[in-house]
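User: I'm putting together a teaching handout on how sequence relates to shape, and I'd like one worked example. Could you take (S)-2-hydroxy-acid oxidase from Cicer arietinum, show the sequence you're using, and then write out its predicted structure as tokens right after it?

Assistant: Happy to. First the sequence, then the structure tokens directly below it.
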Amino acid sequence: MNITNVSEYEAIAKEKLSKMIYDYYASGAEDQWTLRENRNAFSRILFKPRILMDVSKIDLTTNVLGFNISMPIMIAPTALQKMAHPQGEYATARAASVAGTIMTLSSWASSSVEEVSSTGPGIRFLQLYVFKDRSMVTQLLRRAENAGFKAIVLTADSPVIGRREASIKNRSTLPSYVRWKNFEGMDLEKLDKTNNSAHTSVVNGLYDQSLTWKDVTWLQTLTSLPIIVKGVLTAEDTRLAIQAGAAGIIVSNHGARQLDYVPATIMALEEV
């Protein structure tokens, strides 16, 4: 198959995946206005090319938190990759390493921090949710440190899971061949067997909805790894992240999967 444009992957995925799994990956929250806007906003940003410049030597390398990477493109955390392919996060980790860039592993991955680490060398960050049971957070932090992860990405825009109507309609369940590998042995097996609405209720019950900026400081007392705050869309929250000692921020609307009718991330970037 001769793929010439990254957008072609979406059409191929629609052919190969079940509707439930495709919709899980492809859909956004509520009316999906922000999902469409995330893409449309980029199409409104135009190049202003300058001509007759020496481009014989091009260097895309950059530095993120002291780590040299080959290009200013990294892999964002996405859950349950083995629903799409048996290799799942293993393949993503290997590809990121070969490409010379950073992979961020989702807490809700279908491969554990240890399994991803076993694929070989690479610069990896761990995306983290804060649960009411803080011991779960501490355990995962220790495991990430031991597995050689280099930073923690705190998702800060998810006191509850966004209302993803496609998954509700599909009554989505976790396929039998997929597990939440970072939480094996933590009594979350009931999540595997519930439909989407029940699963959402269970996960919402796990998330600590009292999370505030003081918890960014608290996380820094648990680990020497840098803390990056993900989900920032405003200048106000950028200032608070800096004040809280965050090592970095990720401008994100959670792929439009959390709160609909928020700006496209590329539109929020200038203010941030």
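A couple of points you could highlight for students: The beta strands are 62-64, 67-69, 102-105, 123-128, 151-155, 227-232, 248-251. The first helix runs from residue 8 to 16.
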